[in-house]
Write a structure and sequence with these properties.
Distance between the termini: 93 Å
Strand content: 5-15%
Largest sheet: 2 strands, parallel
Order of helices and strands: HEHHHHHEH
Helix content: over 70%
Length: 195
Protein backbone atom coordinates (compact mmCIF):
# COMPACT_ATOMS: atom_id res chain seq x y z
CA UNK A 1 0.00 0.00 0.00
CA UNK A 2 1.07 3.41 -0.85
CA UNK A 3 1.38 6.08 1.87
CA UNK A 4 -0.15 8.63 -0.47
CA UNK A 5 -3.19 6.45 -0.88
CA UNK A 6 -3.61 6.09 2.93
CA UNK A 7 -3.29 9.84 3.42
CA UNK A 8 -5.94 10.50 0.80
CA UNK A 9 -8.30 7.96 2.40
CA UNK A 10 -7.61 9.42 5.86
CA UNK A 11 -8.23 12.94 4.60
CA UNK A 12 -11.52 11.85 2.99
CA UNK A 13 -12.63 10.13 6.20
CA UNK A 14 -11.65 13.18 8.28
CA UNK A 15 -13.46 15.53 5.89
CA UNK A 16 -16.56 13.28 6.07
CA UNK A 17 -16.48 13.45 9.89
CA UNK A 18 -16.22 17.24 9.73
CA UNK A 19 -19.17 17.32 7.35
CA UNK A 20 -21.18 15.10 9.68
CA UNK A 21 -20.18 17.11 12.74
CA UNK A 22 -21.04 20.33 10.84
CA UNK A 23 -24.47 18.91 10.00
CA UNK A 24 -24.93 17.80 13.61
CA UNK A 25 -23.93 21.27 14.79
CA UNK A 26 -26.42 22.89 12.41
CA UNK A 27 -29.18 20.53 13.51
CA UNK A 28 -28.39 21.18 17.17
CA UNK A 29 -28.37 24.94 16.52
CA UNK A 30 -31.71 24.70 14.68
CA UNK A 31 -33.23 22.63 17.50
CA UNK A 32 -32.00 25.15 20.08
CA UNK A 33 -33.46 28.03 18.11
CA UNK A 34 -36.80 26.26 17.74
CA UNK A 35 -36.83 25.44 21.44
CA UNK A 36 -36.06 29.06 22.28
CA UNK A 37 -38.81 30.34 20.01
CA UNK A 38 -41.29 27.84 21.45
CA UNK A 39 -40.33 28.74 25.01
CA UNK A 40 -40.63 32.44 24.22
CA UNK A 41 -44.04 31.92 22.60
CA UNK A 42 -45.25 29.84 25.54
CA UNK A 43 -44.03 32.41 28.03
CA UNK A 44 -45.71 35.16 26.00
CA UNK A 45 -49.11 33.52 26.39
CA UNK A 46 -51.11 35.08 29.19
CA UNK A 47 -53.53 33.27 31.45
CA UNK A 48 -56.11 34.65 33.86
CA UNK A 49 -59.23 33.54 35.67
CA UNK A 50 -62.65 34.76 36.72
CA UNK A 51 -65.18 33.51 39.24
CA UNK A 52 -68.52 33.55 37.41
CA UNK A 53 -70.46 32.88 40.62
CA UNK A 54 -68.86 35.92 42.24
CA UNK A 55 -69.61 38.04 39.17
CA UNK A 56 -73.24 36.87 39.01
CA UNK A 57 -73.77 37.45 42.74
CA UNK A 58 -72.71 41.08 42.26
CA UNK A 59 -75.20 41.77 39.47
CA UNK A 60 -78.55 42.98 40.86
CA UNK A 61 -80.52 41.78 37.80
CA UNK A 62 -79.21 38.26 38.36
CA UNK A 63 -80.25 38.27 42.02
CA UNK A 64 -83.71 39.55 41.02
CA UNK A 65 -84.00 36.85 38.35
CA UNK A 66 -82.97 34.18 40.87
CA UNK A 67 -85.62 35.41 43.33
CA UNK A 68 -88.26 35.36 40.59
CA UNK A 69 -87.27 31.82 39.60
CA UNK A 70 -87.39 30.68 43.22
CA UNK A 71 -90.93 32.10 43.61
CA UNK A 72 -92.08 30.41 40.41
CA UNK A 73 -90.45 27.15 41.45
CA UNK A 74 -91.98 27.25 44.93
CA UNK A 75 -95.46 27.90 43.51
CA UNK A 76 -95.14 25.07 41.01
CA UNK A 77 -93.75 22.73 43.66
CA UNK A 78 -96.71 23.52 45.94
CA UNK A 79 -99.16 22.80 43.11
CA UNK A 80 -97.49 19.45 42.39
CA UNK A 81 -97.43 18.47 46.07
CA UNK A 82 -101.13 19.27 46.34
CA UNK A 83 -101.85 17.00 43.37
CA UNK A 84 -99.84 14.16 44.91
CA UNK A 85 -101.65 14.70 48.23
CA UNK A 86 -104.97 14.37 46.38
CA UNK A 87 -103.72 11.12 44.84
CA UNK A 88 -102.62 9.89 48.28
CA UNK A 89 -105.99 10.81 49.85
CA UNK A 90 -107.87 9.05 47.04
CA UNK A 91 -105.66 5.98 47.50
CA UNK A 92 -106.26 5.91 51.27
CA UNK A 93 -110.00 6.22 50.67
CA UNK A 94 -109.78 3.39 48.15
CA UNK A 95 -107.91 1.20 50.64
CA UNK A 96 -110.56 1.83 53.33
CA UNK A 97 -113.53 1.22 51.01
CA UNK A 98 -112.03 -1.55 48.92
CA UNK A 99 -113.60 -4.47 50.74
CA UNK A 100 -117.06 -2.97 50.23
CA UNK A 101 -116.65 -2.38 46.49
CA UNK A 102 -117.53 -4.54 43.57
CA UNK A 103 -114.81 -5.58 41.11
CA UNK A 104 -116.03 -2.98 38.60
CA UNK A 105 -115.98 -0.18 41.24
CA UNK A 106 -112.45 -1.17 42.29
CA UNK A 107 -111.17 -1.03 38.70
CA UNK A 108 -112.84 2.32 38.20
CA UNK A 109 -111.25 3.79 41.37
CA UNK A 110 -107.85 2.28 40.52
CA UNK A 111 -108.01 3.81 37.05
CA UNK A 112 -108.96 7.14 38.60
CA UNK A 113 -105.97 6.96 40.97
CA UNK A 114 -103.58 6.00 38.15
CA UNK A 115 -104.95 8.81 35.95
CA UNK A 116 -104.55 11.39 38.73
CA UNK A 117 -101.03 10.21 39.50
CA UNK A 118 -100.09 10.35 35.80
CA UNK A 119 -101.51 13.88 35.60
CA UNK A 120 -99.42 14.93 38.62
CA UNK A 121 -96.29 13.40 37.07
CA UNK A 122 -97.04 15.16 33.76
CA UNK A 123 -97.47 18.47 35.58
CA UNK A 124 -94.11 17.90 37.28
CA UNK A 125 -92.47 17.26 33.89
CA UNK A 126 -94.20 20.34 32.47
CA UNK A 127 -92.73 22.57 35.16
CA UNK A 128 -89.40 20.91 36.00
CA UNK A 129 -88.60 18.70 33.00
CA UNK A 130 -85.61 19.22 30.66
CA UNK A 131 -87.60 21.58 28.45
CA UNK A 132 -90.10 22.62 31.11
CA UNK A 133 -91.30 25.98 32.37
CA UNK A 134 -88.40 26.38 34.82
CA UNK A 135 -85.84 25.76 32.08
CA UNK A 136 -87.58 28.20 29.74
CA UNK A 137 -87.81 30.83 32.48
CA UNK A 138 -84.11 30.42 33.27
CA UNK A 139 -83.29 30.84 29.59
CA UNK A 140 -85.43 33.96 29.40
CA UNK A 141 -84.19 35.59 32.62
CA UNK A 142 -80.62 34.42 33.11
CA UNK A 143 -79.25 33.66 29.62
CA UNK A 144 -79.03 37.38 28.62
CA UNK A 145 -77.00 38.13 31.76
CA UNK A 146 -74.67 35.18 31.11
CA UNK A 147 -74.27 36.27 27.49
CA UNK A 148 -73.24 39.78 28.60
CA UNK A 149 -70.66 38.29 30.96
CA UNK A 150 -69.32 36.00 28.23
CA UNK A 151 -68.98 38.92 25.80
CA UNK A 152 -67.16 40.96 28.46
CA UNK A 153 -64.77 38.06 29.15
CA UNK A 154 -64.19 37.61 25.43
CA UNK A 155 -63.47 41.34 25.01
CA UNK A 156 -61.12 41.29 28.03
CA UNK A 157 -59.27 38.30 26.55
CA UNK A 158 -58.83 40.01 23.20
CA UNK A 159 -57.81 43.40 24.62
CA UNK A 160 -55.50 41.89 27.22
CA UNK A 161 -54.02 39.34 24.81
CA UNK A 162 -54.97 36.43 27.06
CA UNK A 163 -54.62 32.96 25.58
CA UNK A 164 -56.97 31.44 28.17
CA UNK A 165 -59.30 32.77 30.85
CA UNK A 166 -60.44 30.05 33.24
CA UNK A 167 -63.63 30.05 35.32
CA UNK A 168 -62.91 28.93 38.88
CA UNK A 169 -66.58 28.59 39.85
CA UNK A 170 -67.43 24.92 40.37
CA UNK A 171 -63.96 23.89 39.21
CA UNK A 172 -62.22 21.45 41.48
CA UNK A 173 -59.30 21.07 39.07
CA UNK A 174 -57.87 24.53 39.81
CA UNK A 175 -55.42 23.70 42.59
CA UNK A 176 -54.03 27.21 42.94
CA UNK A 177 -55.01 30.57 41.55
CA UNK A 178 -52.99 33.71 42.02
CA UNK A 179 -55.32 36.58 43.03
CA UNK A 180 -53.25 38.87 40.81
CA UNK A 181 -54.67 37.05 37.77
CA UNK A 182 -58.31 37.34 38.89
CA UNK A 183 -60.24 39.47 36.40
CA UNK A 184 -63.64 39.11 38.11
CA UNK A 185 -63.77 42.71 39.38
CA UNK A 186 -62.51 43.97 36.01
CA UNK A 187 -65.39 42.16 34.30
CA UNK A 188 -67.88 43.69 36.75
CA UNK A 189 -66.49 47.16 36.03
CA UNK A 190 -66.65 46.48 32.29
CA UNK A 191 -70.33 45.57 32.72
CA UNK A 192 -70.94 48.82 34.62
CA UNK A 193 -71.05 47.47 38.18
CA UNK A 194 -68.83 48.56 41.04
CA UNK A 195 -67.71 46.29 43.79
Amino acid sequence: MDIKHINIDTRKAFAGKRAISGLTFRLALLATLLLGITAHTASAQRFAWVDSEYILSNIPEYRAAQEQLEKLSAGWQKEIEERYEQVEALYRSYQNDRVLMSEEMRRKREDEIVTMEAAAAELQRKYFGPEGELFNSQEELIRPIQDRIYKAVEKMAQEGNYAVIFDTANSSSMLYTNPRNDLSDDILRMLGYRN
